[in-house]
Design a protein that fits this description.
By secondary structure, this protein is α/β, with parallel strands linked by helices. A hairpin with a 6-residue loop joins β15 and β16. It is globular, with a radius of gyration of 22 Å. The mean pLDDT is 97. The structure holds 8-demethyl-8-dimethylamino-flavin-adenine-dinucleotide and P-hydroxybenzoic acid. P-hydroxybenzoic acid binds next to loops. The site of P-hydroxybenzoic acid has 9 residues, from loops.
Length: 396
């Protein structure tokens, strides 16, 4: 069968938050793109991942016309709770972060909103593509080759955006001789569960306990999202419902009469914790964005927010190129994006270190950890630093 060739301005690999938002932003700037996604639309719209949107992310969704459902269905939170030693302490964003706050609205709902906006605008999204490969990325005419609906296809573009997540093909297309990877793996995992029960709390509870970390979040008025620190190599089958509830009750114990609402557990999964940054985020005409370039442990709730911040910078740089034939911003993309990335890397790593139980920490280090928690919940200066990072530094 003959090969199908398409020409576009920006070829985007991956229909996660980064790829879809980039395509949406480019469309608003009058720039054409084609999005290639290996999974089906149904799959990407059903994968449970992030939940917390920073203020800047909320503003971006609203300003670009895809925030309607989030405004109706998301939960606006003006603080978080830190719990340790059986007591709960509130970090109040309204007081500490200039009135900025966060919204709990699931990542897969953001995906649904972006997919429908792109399709309503006649966007070219191709699902279930395979064998994606990048060619001539250091030339002025890069190409992406792939299989779609049984046909060999080629996408010819001016620029390629690698938005294909941590396991995608884009990052490896940057030769290891010009790329430096920074990586840290934690001896920790998170068991995440979805529970049919109304939220147990009005704001997220991050709990430190000698048996390990626990997190109480939510998804809707009828669904809770809960997490428990576990071993990264453990299998979910090792976690019976009884064991999960027993651990959650122990780790969330308190002297304040707060109670966790139980319900039917409808999903369980385990994620490993990793910090990772690839520098630079550009090679020739390939630009990486989101998890393709960097990973943070979920404790700081930063991953999706970073992905969206990257593509905002990238869309502005591409706009400058197409509108004014200038590539200064494109040349600075990596340096600009990495500033925010490293801030989030530090914050996520710091939150992880403060809130988890580390088996290899001696008693001295455990005292330091508790002292850090006490400091952050008693000093306005320390709490302000947490709040400012949690709600997200302005997108700039
Ligand atoms: P994604 O979402 O991984 O999307 C990449 C897409 O690319 C596709 N793909 C390919 N397509 C074509 N060809 C190939 N060769 C391809 N290879 C891959 C994939 O199918 C996929 O659809 O990356 P993106 O867009 O950079 O977005 C990143 C976010 O998804 C991620 O950072 C967040 O989910 C992280 N995260 C959180 N982030 C937050 O901002 N707030 C949170 O509260 C939060 N909580 C979390 C999280 C991640 C978690 N897990 C599961 C790791 C909680 C958890 C438990
Ligand atoms: C979530 O609701 O999935 C969530 C919330 C806060 C985090 C990570 C995940 O830090």
């Amino acid at each position: 069968m003959s090969e199908s060739v398409t020409r576009t301005q920006v070829g985007i690999i991956g229909a996660g938050p980064a790829g879809l938002m980039l395509s949406h932003l480019l469309h608003l700037h009058g720039i054409e793109s084609v999005v290639l996604e290996s999974r089906s639309r149904r799959e990407i719209e059903a994968t449970i991942r992030a939940g917390v949107l920073e203020q800047g992310t909320v503003d971006l969704l609203n300003e670009t016309g895809v925030g309607e459902r989030m405004k109706r269905e998301g939960f606006v939170h003006h603080g978080i709770y830190l719990r340790f030693g059986g007591r709960t302490h509130r970090i109040c964003f309204s007081d500490l972060a200039d009135g900025r706050c966060i919204t709990v609205y699931p990542q897969h709902e953001v995906i649904k909103d972006l997919v429908s906006a792109r399709l309503a605008a006649g966007g070219d999204l191709r699902f279930e593509v395979s064998d994606v490969s990048l060619h001539d990325i250091t030339s002025e005419a890069p190409r992406i080759r792939f299989q779609h609906a049984g046909r060999a296809c080629e996408l010819r573009c001016d620029y390629v955006a690698g938005c294909d997540g941590f396991h995608g093909v884009s990052r490896p297309a940057i030769p290891s001789t010009t790329r430096k990877d920074y990586s840290h793996t934690y001896p920790l995992g998170w068991l995440g569960i979805l529970v049919e029960a109304p939220p147990s709390t009005d704001e997220l509870i991050y709990a430190y306990h000698a048996r390990g970390f626990a997190l109480v979040s939510m998804r809707s008025t009828t669904l809770q999202r809960l997490y428990l620190q576990c071993h990264p190599d453990e299998h979910v089958d090792a976690w019976s419902d009884d064991r999960i509830w027993s651990e959650l009750h122990t780790r969330l114990e308190n002297t304040e009469g707060w109670r966790l609402k139980e319900g039917k557990i409808i999903q369980k999964n385990i994620v490993a914790m990793r910090s990772f940054v690839a520098e630079p985020m550009q090679h020739g005409r390939l630009f990486l964005a989101g998890d393709a370039a960097h990973i943070v442990p979920p404790t700081g709730a930063k991953g999706m927010n970073l992905a969206l911040a990257d593509v905002r910078v990238l869309s502005q740089a591409l706009d400058e190129f197409y509108r004014h034939a200038r590539s200064d911003r494109l040349a600075n993309y990596s340096a600009t994006a990495l500033k925010r990335v490293w801030r989030a890397e530090h914050f996520s790593s710091w939150m992880t270190s403060m809130l988890h139980h580390f088996a290899d920490r001696d008693e001295f280090q455990q005292h330091l950890q508790v002292s850090q928690l006490e400091y952050v919940t008693s000093s306005t200066a320390a709490a302000k630093s947490l709040a400012e990072n949690y709600v997200g530094v302005p997108m700039g």
